[in-house]
Structure prediction request, 163 residues.
Amino acid sequence: MVRDEELNRLVRYAQGMGLSVRFKPYVPYSKDQAEWHTDGTEIVVFVKKNTSKLEKILSLIHELGHHKSWIENGRKIDPKFEDALGDDESKRSRRIVYLGELNDTQYWEQIYRDTDCRFNPYILHMHRELDVWMYEVYYETGKFPTHKEKDAKKKQLKEKFRC
Prediction:
């Protein structure tokens, strides 16, 4: 019940910023759990049968961070960032994507507070650190971490944040 209310508040928050939010079935073998359209019109969250409400919430917070950054930049996307998206070959492009992702995480706590989320804030911090690490791995290697590597990092972060 609490997660449903949080999810609804996040959707209304997005709609208040002019976004539509859709939940679509996850595409197998995709690296994307969600996407923010760079024209500032929509967020799509990809869900599996076992996607938890908290995972949906965290995906929405991630994508809303991109939207808030876009608003702060005059509703314009940095052309360098847009060109870098999808260019897995160039380390320079991957660095631009990594730095953009890192920058946009600064809005997560504000979104968490604005939408009166009730889940433990350590989960948000843990998810942010995991997300930044994944993009750092992508920047360095050109590939995102495997599920096994991601699970190991999650375990390490759970230990760190529960202390």
